Amino acid sequence: MSRFLNPELAKIEAYIPGEQPRDMKYIKLNTNESPYPPSPSVLYAANEEEIKKLRLYSDPESKELKNALAALYALSPKNICVSNGSDEILNFAFLAFGKNKSGSGAVFPKITYGFYPVFANLYGIEAERIPLRDNFSINPDDYINKNKLTVIANPNAPTGISLTKEEIRKIVSSNPDGVVVIDEAYVDFGGETCYELIKEYDNLLVVRTFSKSRSMAGARLGFAFASEAIIEDLEKIRYSTNPYNVNRLTQLLGIKALEENDYYIKNCERIIKTRENTAKALKELGFTVLPSKTNFLFAKSEKISGEKLYEELKKRGVLIRHFSDPEISNFNRITIGSEEEMTIFVDKIKEILRLPKTLGGIQL
Length: 364
Ligand code: PMP
Known about the structure:
The chain is of the alpha/beta class. It has helices at residues 7-10, 40-45, 48-52, 63-73, 86-97, 115-122, 165-173, 228-241, 248-259, 261-284, 306-315, 339-352, and strands spanning 27-29, 80-83, 99-100, 103-104, 106-109, 127-130, 149-153, 180-183, 204-209, 222-226, 288-289, 296-300, 318-322, 331-335.
């Protein structure tokens, strides 16, 4: 730290992203990326002509991309904001709505996406962190009448457990004086979206990403749906920080991805099938596996600690995500890769636990 840093920022504990090692080739099951490439039209669009155009700034309004999103989700472009990854919209939301006329404060689950407490700290917003139920689910009744900035990942991360649209409605309708952010990063893997509720509630902000179901984590593209007024607030912050937040190529590739939605729906179906088969294989090995509606599993074994399993798998070329928080340190988060990758993953676990290997792979 330099002696010049604003003292208010000195205490900030930054978010620690999942490791992206370059030392060897791993089976990467640690940052919830898709095992499948972007759709053919996305691959085709990233051509030399488009790369030459990078000398020009991107459209600060992302007009075509917003129009494409509006058409697919049957909304007005005025209900849509796009960003450099969905983390950026979450950042904007904490900045914009963490303090309002009735005071300051945010509320989110104790176990959830690790960036929420980082944003709260960054902006000096007091955060109420609500424990999950014993089965790791969120109790919607705990979020009634808070009227602060409420932030819920649905499905939640890293548990993978989801709430229904009606449970979300209960939270949104009982907090008319606070913005409720529903982070739907993983909703395409079997969760229930609530985005149409933005037509009924002016305090709902639904955040989405191209990083998971649309195989574009490296392009950094997020989007959000909300009332026109909330979008105007987010745009105000965007124009006050970085109007060219979504680069030219990413805008173009986002549009191309939306043109081939069926390709991504099929990938999600494949990932869901692989998830269920992997969950079954892990349960057969004695693991506790939480019911996931995402592209990852959250699982623990009585036979080996979470940390040891993470280390042993890493030695064998398989990366999963381990969290040091004592409440969940026996669990690991395992991204669903391809069928082949998950067969290797299960076999490596058998090797570590000294169990006989699978003959002919897990039943896929
Ligand atoms: N929300 C949740 C719950 C996540 O797990 C992630 C991925 N780390 C994000 C948002 C951010 O994703 P991105 O910035 O890649 O859109």
